[in-house]
Amino acid sequence: MTQYNTTHSNITFPLLIDYVDALLPSLTTHVDAISSQPNDNAEVLWVLQDKEAQLAIEPQLNSHVINESHSSSTAHMQKPQIYTLSKLFHQSIPERYTLACFWLPTLSLELLQQYIPLLMRYRDLYAAHVLIALDNTVDLKAYGFTPFDVLSEQNLEDKAIDRAKSSVSDTSLDSATLWQFNLYDYKQLPNWLNADYWANPENWGKSRW
Questions:
Q1: Cα separation of 99 and 45, whole Å?
Q2: Which helix (H) or strand (E) holds 162?
Q3: Burial class (CB in 10 A: 0-12, 13-18, 19+), 100
Q4: How many helices (H) and strands (E) does the chain have?
Q5: CB 3.0-4.6 Å disulfide test: which of 86, 144, 175, 184 passes with 10?
Q6: In whole angstroms, how far apart are CA 209 and each of 14, 80, 99, 200, 206?
Q7: Among candidates 125, 119, 115, 70, which has minimal Cα distance to 93?
Q8: Does the pTM exceed 0.85?
Q9: What is the phi-psi region of residue 200: left when phi exceeds 0, alpha when psi lies from -120 to 50, beta otherwise?
Q10: At 54, which helix (H) or strand (E)?
Q11: Which residues make beta-bridge pairs with 176?
Q12: What gap in Å lies between CA 46 and CA 58, rounded to an integer?
């Protein structure tokens, strides 16, 4: 009998969409603030398990972008880049993204092992922030990812429930555990690693070096 990990809340695809909407503005601002170069990264990459999942979910993503663009006073939202795992794996010249979202709730552990190098490349090189939704039995802690519970955000949850009620896609209603990795804050800097502690400033003017 399969044992499921119940320590982390499940996330559905509609909820993930709303979380991305809430996360992206602050993430883009953060990337711009710490980079000395202009941020030329594309905004969001969505990665789906296979062609069947893409056919079911891609219309929802495109429709969401159109609706948000019409209802928002901000600039026009970029059309999302959408790939299957296989297509992304064989991409010869990868792009860089502000946020990469992997929606893989039905991916088996055995098949996941084939794509771990791909996930690592996007973790380390091609995305400032990575979100991966996987079956509850899969654990990514060994690869530096941390589980993240967005269900505590009640407003996001309510919006996702309303969206799910109107959805006709069973694929989008699958649930999974969400894992994340942020390239810029994955490691907390120790207290000593700043200019105040360099070269023993308390001894300045007291001794000859």
A1: 6
A2: helix 154-165
A3: buried
A4: 5, 7
A5: 175
A6: 63, 58, 48, 11, 10
A7: 125
A8: no
A9: left
A10: helix 51-71
A11: 11
A12: 9
Instruction: Of 98, 67, 95, give the one whose Cα is nearest residue 83.
Output: 95
Nearest to 46 by CA among 7, 5, 2, 16: 16
Asked if 103 and 49 count as a contact pair (C-beta separation under 8 A), the reply is yes
CA of 159: how far to CAs of 50, 88, 124, in Å? 27, 30, 32
DSSP E strand stretches across the chain: 11-12, 42-48, 81-84, 97-104, 127-134, 146-147, 175-182
The position carrying tokens 């999974």 is 176
DSSP string, 127-144: EEEEEEEE-TT---GGGT
